[in-house]
Design a protein that fits this description.
The structure holds two protein chains of two kinds. By secondary structure, chain A is α+β, with helices and mostly antiparallel strands. In chain A, 48% of the residues lie in helices and 14% in strands. Chain A contains twelve helices and ten strands. Chain B is α/β, with parallel strands linked by helices. Chain B has one domain (2-212): HUPs (Rossmann fold, 3-Layer(aba) Sandwich), CATH 3.40.50.620. The chains are: A alpha+beta, B alpha/beta. The complex binds flavin-adenine dinucleotide. Residues 108, 141-145, 150-152, 175-177, 225, 230, 379, 382-384, 386, 388-389, 392 of chain A line the site of flavin-adenine dinucleotide.
Chain lengths: 423, 263
């Protein structure tokens, strides 16, 4: 009953035996159910109102913090709940089934920032940044994109100049989720603007948004995630202690990419939830709406849309669960997570598009949820690697041009004893 | 102070009851939703946990009579914050009515021993009788406090509660031990916590049988389901009254209602 397919993993680098495991544990399922109940009871009833107002639901961040969602897969010793990476995926699926903005919170706070600190941070940084983030006392964001560069990360203009025990950071980040809400932003800047190749000059810092010289603002009138927060962050001569540098100088690009392996996982699992939301809405409406004397569910062209959505959902879910399983095992999953993200986000847009079609004109108005699903699905095809970038990656792997080298710090495999020990 | 919370696993709130020609009842959920803790019991569970947090209860023991599946309800109770859970399960108890159930629960509460408060939801969404709490109180020989909307004070072996009666609220005081049935106004049930979920799924839930309790539930049942059949479907028709003006529509509607002797 509690089973789900996880496909065979081939060609494992670390020689870990291939494994086919169909089961999810009751713990994982109960955690997902708790998050589902939270979303349905506390966010869903007012989501249209906040989407129209272009404001975050006041329940979103504080309640996600209070309930422990913001620390779900972080070890208890670092303020988290000690669940595994698969549970993070299941939770993101449930969150985005209600509204994409909830999952966006997990993408930046957990995937792109907290998991980056878990992977690359020192013990002291884990205590100072990760623990309050996992407890939900501090919200976390990710500052990579700039007004002038998105996909072309190495072209960034932001700089960090060493000055004694500090760095002086200057630059502007754009399209930053939680820009005006986050306390900690993982900021990427060039410590060596002349490095060759350029990406070797990038370094990562934890910028605390109450540091003098940091200003932030919101971007309005986005197509989707309107009940979320997206904005800009500016650093003008911001003095950041060297103790806030995450990783070594010049390691920033690798750190950004491994953060994306985790952020994309949350986007993939979330988009899977959005496909499910479109499917569920379509199933309901197709049985209620009658044309020519029959429920439209009786027409094969409608059934075909349902079948497609079911197929997209199943495949998207299989793909993200494979990534989650690999993370649990401590296996590098850049390729698998990229394909999960690319597939799920493209299909979530298609699913919302088909769901609107099933709903006819009603689907075109915000009386129903499906138009919001369409608007919300669109951004994920752009952020955390556009679909084009993922296609380039996949082709690169397929041709053998692209290979993942071991990192100085790998994301730790899920070890239940270490994760759950109360220290 | 020991508190017992009685809870039961019921179909989901969206389940549809159907009866086939052989009198078999099914409670399938069209959306495939699983069974849940009886939603009314969530208030009882929450109040039990609040008694621990605010009134010094030491143990909050979730108690359920049912089959193995009822462990799910008990796990939810543990995940929310109950300190212990006990399942009472025996073939002999299958098909117990509310009186049979009350006898078994009372026996279990006596076996737990030194219980001061036994909490119930106001009714179960499947049977919907609302009798079990009162019958259990009778079997225990304790004061039943039904439809409780607030626990005000517990001191000197007495408890003061507010009851939601049909004609208003009343405040009553009774000596402990008592049986309380809760209404939804009493609190806002919390979600299970992640830590609680982990604890609950690892908890070893003891199962007590008829032999452990020295009772026989089925024999104590007074209700006999001799013939179960589906309710005949209601016949009805929709007619939309068309007219040029609202006044005219209203006049036609009034005529119709007279004709049908509705007014
Ligand atoms: C709602 C939302 C939230 C976001 N949140 C964050 C955040 O929290 N933090 C953050 O750092 N960023 C965030 N972003 C930014 C996002 O990551 C970037 O928008 C994304 O990386 C794409 O960059 P760009 O917009 O500059 O597009 P560009 O890189 O300018 O790309 C424009 C087009 O060119 C294509 N393209 C680019 N290079 C190639 C190539 N080599 N081959 C083929 N096609 C190519 C792209 O696929 C795209 O179609 C967010 C964006 C949105 C919309």
């Amino acid at each position: 009953m509690n089973s789900f397919f996880i496909p065979i993993i081939q060609n494992l680098q670390n020689g870990v035996p291939t494994m086919l495991d169909f089961s999810l544990t009751e713990e994982q399922l109960s955690a997902a159910k708790m998050v589902k109940d939270f979303g349905e009871k506390e966010i869903y009833p007012t989501i249209k109102e906040y989407d129209r107002k272009q404001e975050m639901s006041p329940n979103a961040l504080p309640r996600m913090a209070e309930l422990g969602i913001l620390g779900i897969n972080i070890p208890v010793r670092y303020g988290g709940q000690g669940f595994d990476y698969v549970t993070l995926g299941l939770v993101c699926e449930e969150l985005e089934r209600v509204d994409s903005t909830l999952r966006v919170v997990m993408s930046v706070h957990m995937g792109l920032n907290s998991m980056g600190v878990l992977q690359w941070g020192t013990e002291e940084q884990k205590q100072r940044f990760l623990a309050p983030q996992a407890r939900g006392e501090k919200y976390a964001g990710f500052g990579l994109t700039e007004p002038g560069v998105g996909s072309d990360v190495a072209g960034m203009a932001s700089t960090a100049r060493r000055d004694g025990d500090d760095y002086i950071i200057n630059g502007e980040k754009m399209w930053i989720s939680l820009a005006t809400k986050a306390h900690h932003i993982l900021w990427f800047a060039k410590t060596d603007p002349d490095a060759n190749p350029p990406h070797k000059g990038i370094t990562a810092f934890m910028v605390e948004t109450d540091m003098p010289g940091v200003t932030t603002g919101d971007i309005h009138d986005k197509l989707g995630v309107r009940a979320g927060s997206t904005g800009w962050v500016n650093c003008q001569d911001v003095r950041v202690p060297a103790a806030n540098r995450i990783g070594e100088e010049g390691e920033g690009f690798k750190i950004a990419m491994s953060c994306l392996d985790n952020g994309r996982y949350t986007v993939a699992s979330g988009a899977t939830g959005l496909i499910r939301a479109s499917l569920e809405a379509s199933l309901k409406y197709a049985q209620e709406r009658h044309t020519f004397g029959k429920p439209i569910a009786q027409y094969q062209l409608i059934q075909q849309k349902i079948a497609w959505m079911q197929q997209w959902y199943d495949v998207a879910r299989l793909l993200y669960l494979r990534s989650g399983w690999m993370k649990n095992q401590g296996l590098r999953n850049t390729r698998e997570t990229s394909i999960a993200k690319w597939y799920a986000t493209d299909q979530s847009f298609k699913a919302a598009h088909e769901a609107i079609q099933v709903h006819g004109a009603y689907g075109y108005s915000d009386e129903y949820d499906v138009e919001r699903f369409l608007r919300n699905s669109r951004g994920a095809i752009i952020y955390e690697g556009t679909s084009e970038i993922h296609q380039l990656m996949q082709a690169g792997y397929a041709f053998g041009w692209r290979k993942d080298k071991p990192l100085r710090c790998e994301l730790p495999a899920y070890d239940p004893d270490f994760w759950q020990e109360e220290d | 102070m020991k508190v017992v919370v009685c809870t039961k696993q019921t179909p989901s709130t969206t389940a549809v009851i159907t009866v086939d020609d052989n009198g078999h009842v099914s409670w399938d959920d069209p959306g495939g939703k699983p069974n849940v803790v009886n939603p009314w019991d969530e208030y009882g569970i929450e109040e039990g946990i609040l008694l621990k947090e605010n009134h010094g209860a030491t143990d909050v023991i979730a108690l359920s009579l049912g089959d193995e599946d009822s462990k799910d309800a008990l796990k939810t109770a543990l995940a929310m914050g109950c300190t212990e859970a006990i399942l009472v399960s025996d073939e002999a108890f299958a098909g117990s009515d509310t009186l049979g159930t009350a006898r078994v629960l009372a026996a279990a509460i006596n076996k737990i021993g030194a219980v001061q408060v036994a909490l119930f939801g106001k009714q179960a969404i499947d049977g919907d009788t609302g009798q079990t709490a009162v019958q259990a109180a009778r079997k225990l020989g304790w004061t039943p406090l039904t439809f409780v909307s607030a626990v005000k004070e517990i001191s000197d072996g007495r408890i003061t509660v507010e009851r939601l009666a049909d004609d208003g609220k009343e405040t009553v005081t009774a000596p402990l031990p008592v049986v309380i049935s809760t209404v939804k106004e009493i609190n806002e049930p919390r979600y299970p916590s992640f830590m609680g979920i982990r604890k609950a799924n690892r908890a070893n839930i003891p199962v007590w049988t008829a032999a452990d309790l020295d009772v026989d539930g089925a024999v104590g049942s007074k209700v006999d389901w001799s013939h179960i059949y589906a309710m005949p479907p209601r016949e009805g028709a929709v007619e939309i009254i068309e007219a040029d003006s609202v006044d005219e529509q209203a006049r036609l509607l009034a005529d119709k209602l007279f004709e049908e002797k509705v007014i």
